[in-house]
């Protein structure tokens, strides 16, 4: 089987708020550094990658080159549908299609149409011969997919429409998209999760539904925000004993005296006690995270821990650090 970055499409999804865009951006940067012509695709009128790389946002639905070998696209459904219908109808002008409210009629008549249009556009980005003779084929398309439930709806739309249409150009197009999604040599599925009980449960559900819906398995789970494991069991016991020592004897009497005097000055013992409490709390959380990693590994899936980035929001240096980490894993 081809390595993950040598396939045509990477689908990145997972529970909302776990850092899908961060991981998709890091994968795009990594692939471009390896010389692959790469595009990161966002949906839902999102366009965060250009801002991350300090580039102005492109017009809706337009591909923008951000750096050598790396482009981005935020799918505009009206534009994507118009391009698709032009490809199907040939001589029908885009102006006529745009003035006929085609997308609104299509979407109203066929629930799930938005998802199918998005998937058809993603498929088109992988083709040697692009629509309208513009643009080039990308070696790799990284899809920053919506959260799990919506992503599964997108991925299932070609099968749904294929069953409805059965014959004709829409059925044929749906089948071509389905072939891409179901071919393990051409596409790959990556889940992003936090090491929490809820996020891991959603990842397991994604694994099961992906198998049922497309006959595919998750290629990897990237567990974002992993805290370092700084202490072994013996060291944690020593930390706990230091805390016990600080809570007795002269320290306790000194605190009582300070309280009687109304002193608000933090003593060195208070600082040490706070540091010990923080060390114990981080160790407890780190241990809980690793229990969740073990839960995922029991599902026979490749698990890649991603170190916690100590920043308030998504920024380029954090993404570059994650890309460097993935360089050693993929």
What this model shows, in words?
With 330 residues, this protein is of the alpha/beta class. It folds into two domains: 244 residues, P-loop containing nucleotide triphosphate hydrolases (Rossmann fold), CATH 3.40.50; 51 residues, no CATH class. Helices cover 54% and strands 15% of the residues. Strands 3-4-2-5-1-6-7-8 form an eight-stranded mixed sheet, sandwiched between helices. A hairpin with a 2-residue loop joins strand 3 and strand 4. It is elongated. The mean pLDDT is 83.
Summed over residues and divided by their number, the pLDDT gives a mean of 83
* Beginning-to-end CA distance, first to last residue: 14 Å
Strand runs, count? 8
User: Roughly how much helix do the residues carry, as a percent range?
Assistant: 40-55%
What labels would you give this structure?
330 residues; alpha/beta; Rossmann fold; 8-stranded mixed β-sheet; elongated
In terms of topology, how is this protein built?
Layout: E1 9-14, H1 20-33, E2 38-42, H2 48-52, E3 64-67, E4 70-74, H3 77-89, H4 94-99, H5 102-109, H6 113-125, E5 140-147, H7 148-165, H8 169-182, E6 187-194, H9 197-214, E7 220-226, H10 233-246, H11 250-261, H12 268-297, E8 303-307, H13 316-327
Parallel strand pairs: 1-5, 1-6, 2-4, 2-5, 6-7, 7-8
Antiparallel strand pairs: 3-4
Helix pairs in contact: 1-13, 3-6, 6-7, 6-8, 7-8, 7-9, 10-12
Briefly summarize what is shown.
With 330 residues, the protein is an alpha/beta fold. The protein contains 13 helices and eight strands. The radius of gyration is 25 Å and the shape is elongated.
């Amino acid at each position: 089987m081809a390595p993950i970055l040598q396939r045509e499409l990477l689908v990145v999804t997972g529970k909302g708020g776990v850092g899908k865009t961060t991981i998709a951006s890091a994968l795009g940067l990594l692939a471009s550094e390896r010389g692959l012509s790469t595009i990161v695709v966002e949906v839902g009128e999102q366009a965060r990658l250009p801002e991350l790389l300090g580039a102005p946002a492109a017009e809706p639905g337009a591909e923008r080159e951000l750096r050598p070998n790396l482009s981005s696209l935020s799918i505009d459904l009206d534009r994507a549908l118009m391009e698709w219908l032009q490809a199907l109808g040939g001589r029908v002008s885009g102006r006529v299609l745009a003035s006929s409210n085609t997308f609104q009629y299509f979407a109203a008549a066929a629930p799930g149409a938005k998802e199918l249009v998005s998937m058809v556009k993603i498929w088109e980005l992988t083709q040697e011969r692009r629509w309208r003779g513009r643009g080039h084929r990308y070696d790799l398309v990284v899809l920053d997919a919506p959260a799990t439930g919506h992503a599964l709806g997108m991925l299932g739309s070609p099968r749904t429409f294929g069953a409805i249409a059965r014959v004709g150009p829409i059925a044929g197009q749906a089948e071509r998209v389905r072939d891409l999604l179901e071919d393990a040599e051409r596409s790959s599925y990556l889940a992003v999760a936090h090491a929490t009980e809820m996020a891991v449960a959603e990842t397991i559900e994604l694994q099961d539904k992906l198998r049922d819906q497309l006959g595919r398995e998750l290629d990897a789970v990237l567990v974002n925000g992993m805290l370092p494991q700084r202490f072994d069991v013996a060291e944690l016991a020593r930390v706990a004993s230091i805390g016990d020592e600080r809570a007795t004897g002269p320290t306790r009497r000194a605190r009582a005296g300070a309280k009687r005097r109304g002193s608000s000055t933090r003593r060195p013992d208070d600082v040490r006690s706070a540091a010990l409490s923080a060390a114990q709390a981080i160790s407890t959380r780190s241990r809980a995270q690793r229990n969740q990693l073990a839960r995922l590994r029991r599902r026979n899936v490749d698990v890649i821990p991603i170190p916690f980035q100590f920043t308030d929001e998504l920024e380029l240096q954090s993404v570059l650090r994650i890309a460097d980490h993935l360089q050693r894993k993929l």
